[in-house]
Amino acid sequence: MRINARLTSAQVRELEWLKRTTHASTTEVIKAAIGMYYHELNKSQTEPGRLLREAGFVACGEAEADLSQNYKDALGQDLATKHDHR
Fold first, then answer.
1. Distance from C-alpha of 34 to C-alpha of 9, rounded to nearest angstrom
2. Residue 55 in domain
3. CA distance readout (Å), 79 to 44, 62, 70, 73, 83
């Protein structure tokens, strides 16, 4: 695919700097930029665990180390305490 793009003078300066610094062609710089942009956007959409960790949601609770094995007993005790008045 061929691309025709209008760039500002600042973007032209940035492109020329990237080409000089990386010794890459305009095509290579554009391909790399598209790849980086795609992976950045795609990563944020496909990693819900990362988003939850960044939001502070994951690992925000405290419990016994063996809760995953004894959760039914712990839940039963909590429910009994909560509804003991009946």
1. 20
2. yes
3. 38, 18, 14, 10, 6
- Alpha carbons 33 and 14: distance in angstroms, whole number: 12
Coil, helix or strand at residue 72: helix
Closest Cα to residue 2, out of 30, 22, 23? 30
Q: Report if residue 63 sits inside a domain.
A: yes
7-61 pLDDT, tens per residue?
Answer: 999 999 999 999 999 999 999 999 999 999 998 888 766 677 777 777 777 766 7
Please name the amino acid found at residue 73: D
The answer to whether the beta carbons of residues 86 and 79 sit under 8 Å apart is no
